[in-house]
């Protein structure tokens, strides 16, 4: 309801459409026309329509159970924060290409996690420093860094120079 009201207000005020309603591709010319039903019906009718059409039968609730005695807000916060960790591991599996850890020693597990953390740090730094990479998917960044090479050149006076090579700038979204 809030999204429809915000969109209706923007349409009435002649504001430009938000980014999520636009197509960001130079090869495509899109003309989008939006019209809400809010000008034709009352708010009560809109709510009834939302309940009718928006209810799929899959709505519900779940019970969060813990063996620790904690405040419900703290339990919910901890539960939600685990989603961040799961997405990080999912990204490490799909984007970075980590395979299942087939060892059980603490040192081996720590080593794999260190390598993955370094890979995540490199993609984050690339995303921060490279202009087109700021909105580029992690997979494209890791593909661009597949053959990244660091060469250390040592001069006779003891000074070292670092040269990065074999770096393909990450591509943005496919056009």
Largest sheet: 2 strands, antiparallel
Q: What Rg do the Cα atoms give?
A: 25 Å
Number of helices: 5
Order of helices and strands: HHHHHEE
Pick out the low-confidence regions.
none
Strand content: 5-15%
Mean pLDDT: 78
Task: Determine the N-to-C terminus distance.
Answer: 33 Å
Structural class from helices and strands? mainly alpha
Q: What gross morphology would you assign?
A: flat
Number of strands: 2
Output the strand order for the largest sheet: 1-2
Give the helix level as a range of percent: 40-55%
Please give a structural write-up.
With 175 residues, the chain is mainly α. The protein is built from 5 helices and 2 strands. A hairpin with a 5-residue loop joins β1 and β2. The protein has a two-stranded antiparallel ribbon with strand order 1-2. The longest helix is centred in the middle third of the chain and has 25 residues, at 72-96. The protein is flat.
């Amino acid at each position: 309801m809030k999204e429809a009201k915000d969109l209706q207000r923007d349409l009435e005020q002649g504001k430009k459409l938000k980014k999520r309603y636009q197509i960001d591709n130079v090869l495509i010319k899109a003309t989008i026309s939006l019209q809400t039903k809010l000008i034709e019906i009352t708010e009560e009718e809109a709510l009834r329509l939302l309940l009718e059409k928006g209810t799929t039968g899959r709505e519900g609730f779940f019970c969060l159970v813990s063996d620790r005695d904690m405040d419900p807000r703290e339990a919910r916060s901890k539960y939600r924060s685990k989603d961040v960790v799961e997405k990080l591991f999912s990204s490490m599996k799909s984007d970075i290409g980590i395979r299942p850890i087939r060892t059980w020693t603490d040192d081996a597990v720590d080593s794999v996690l260190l390598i993955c953390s370094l890979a995540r740090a490199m993609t984050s730094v690339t995303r921060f420093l490279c202009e087109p990479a700021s909105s580029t998917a992690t997979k494209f960044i890791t593909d661009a860094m597949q053959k990244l090479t660091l060469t250390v050149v040592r001069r006779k006076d003891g000074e070292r120079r670092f040269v990065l090579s074999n770096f393909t700038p990450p591509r943005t979204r496919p056009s």
